[in-house]
Amino acid sequence: MIRKLLRHAKGYEGKSIATLCLVLFETALEVVLPMFMSYILNTMQLFANGTPLKEALIYLDLQTGQIVSLAENSLTPVTQQLLLSVVVTYGVLMIISAALSLSAGALAGRLCAQAGAGFSRNVRYALFKKIQSFSFSNVDKFSTASLVTRSTTDVNNAQQSFMMIIRTVIRAPAMLIFSCIMAFIRHPDMAWVFLVAVPLLGLVMGILAAKVHPLFLSMLKKYDKMNADVQENLVGIRVVKSFVREDYEEEKYRRSTEEVRKSQLKAERLLILMNPLVNCIVYGTIVTLLIIGGAEIADGRIESGTLTAMMSYCTQILVSVMMICFIAVQLVMSRASIDRIYEVLETEPDIRDGEQKDLQVKDGSIKFDHVNFSYSNNAENLTLTDINLDIASGETVGIIGGTGDGKSSLAQLIPRFYDVLDGSVTVGGVDVREYSLFNLRESVAMVLQKNVLFSGTIRENLLWGNKDATQQEIEAAAKAACAHDFIMSFPDKYETDLGQGGVNVSGGQKQRLCIARALLKKPKIMILDDSTSAVDTATDAQIRYGLKQLDKDMTTIIIAQRISSVEHCDKIVVLNDGKIDAVGTHEQLLKTNQIYQEVYHSQQKGTAEGGEN
């Protein structure tokens, strides 16, 4: 896990390494402070009652400026000036060590925060870039709400883990090791207590961490569900209000939050055991040291300063162990988030560039050769079966059929949003799998059933089709899509702000803007996937006429439910249950194809009845 995290520290390696070094320096200084304190206390004890020290003492002679060593039992008689020199020497060392430790800690904190922010930026960018490379089938694997959670909550958890790794994860073990070493140096007979306490704490943490991880993973899945409910409600807010279903949505969201709460509690039930267990071990260690140290002081084997130093080291050791406990909890939580992040990052796109990177699409001819397709890649569950279809460059082809007959699926194979299970799709005489995705999709414009506009002005949205388009080209595309007139009716015309998702325009206006945006690509193939359903038949006819006038060589595929949208096409494809039932002109199909006849007569009858009403 740590290797995965550090992989995204690129550009912040220097700050991360500097943080590690400063933390080690800070920790080393903190560990020597109890030793200096014990020397001062032992000296003060000697000054108070003249009791000889049981260990060598090194001090600075203020009169000569020389370092002097006083061996055991060599302190009688000792002058007041000599004792003051010892206190001042170690007092100054304590002040210097504390100041340096504080400075190192503050600088380490600043560098750690900078490295952490850079790390999270790198991870978010890597996630976003990876998602952009996904095929539709890859995107289908992860829900939108889940991808949002992974890019926000999970990245925040990973950032906390990274910052702990370069600071706290190093600091706590370093403090533990350094304090243990100093404790054994000061009094080996008492330090054995730590050899029992530390492994016991490690065992407790390891058991709890192993049991808690799957619970946190389950909790994050509940988060995905909760976010999906929020997203669905916000996207469909108009439908919710029109059906007066606010109470239902509130209850559904309440249930989602309740599931999150229960999953959190289930994980926390185990974690709350950590504090009492750790406290038992910590206080047991302190009591043991007090018993042993008190007995040795009473027997005159050690001074009070030595016991004070051992208690300080005990505090440092046990605090560092408690920090490790906290880190373990955070890493357990973060491990689930990191696994979810890398589930996305390590997912290989189903669709990749062809080998001929420079191959260009020469024309808009299309051929389906014995194509079978399944969203699940299961030959037993085909969406399209044995599709054979030739479309000449410049032709206008209509595709009609019932809901679920595979009309959109057929069209999405052309720009390789999905790959065929069997057979082949060729564009410009070349299998689509041989093109680079950029070159293929630059030659194909597709206006989907769900029209999407982005926040910004009308001009900014249209320039998605061609960022270098002139005003004349923009207006020509808008006129062909029957959008120019309503655009000019707005006070700000092409600079009109559309709002989030194009909320400031109607459904029909949104469709026409999407068509104009696609036309600015000047594609060789234009696919209109039921993209004029929100406009009247007269406007629909004007749009079809405008498309052909703008580029006579452009192949146009019109997927529609209305016969009137496709009756003037060069040929019409009738789909039925994922298979081609017939191909022909409007007149031919009216004479020979039963499905087409039924659709035509039912729509004519509906139009007539609507006229009578």
Automatic annotation (TrEMBL):
Keywords: ATP-binding, Cell membrane, Membrane, Nucleotide-binding, Transmembrane, Transmembrane helix, Transport. It holds the Pfam family ABC_membrane. It is found in: Cell membrane. Residues 17-333 form the ABC transmembrane type-1 domain. InterPro entries: AAA+_ATPase, ABC1_TM_dom, ABC1_TM_sf, ABC_transporter-like_ATP-bd, ABC_transporter-like_CS, P-loop_NTPase, Type_1_exporter. Residues 366-602 form the ABC transporter domain. GO terms for cellular component: plasma membrane. It is a multi-pass membrane protein. PROSITE patterns: ABC_TM1F, ABC_TRANSPORTER_1, ABC_TRANSPORTER_2. The chain crosses the membrane at residues 20-41, 82-102, 168-185, 191-212, 270-295, 307-332. One of its GO terms (molecular function) is ATP hydrolysis activity. PANTHER family: ATP-BINDING CASSETTE SUB-FAMILY B MEMBER 10, MITOCHONDRIAL, ATP-DEPENDENT PERMEASE MDL1, MITOCHONDRIAL. This is ABC transporter ATP-binding protein. It comes from Candidatus Fimimonas merdipullorum.
